[in-house]
Specification:
mainly alpha, two-stranded antiparallel sheet, 3 helices
Length: 117
Amino acid sequence: MFSQDKKFRRPDGTLYDPSSFNVRQYEEQYGPGGVPEGYSMGAITPVQSPGLITALAIFLTLISVGMLAVSFFVIASGGELKVILLGFGVGVGGLVMSVYAFRLAVKRRRWLREQRA
């Protein structure tokens, strides 16, 4: 049995994951995308602000759309298949991540608004 299969329990009996990579366990206390003060996935990060998450998502969307445009340009110019597939992979992957980031920012903003009320 692998060590990551072991179940850890708090004194109150609830399960938790001691791995710093699992940030989902903090959602009840800190909200969607929220983690203990200053930490996310074992590293210090400022990205818990819905505005900053949205800004990063917009930046990622622009880069992804640019990669897709380059892929279409390479198709039009008769370029290599490897470059086309790489561009499409990076572009579509970036768009998927940006959609997730937009959803997370909306959930986080809504959660923070409910906490203030």
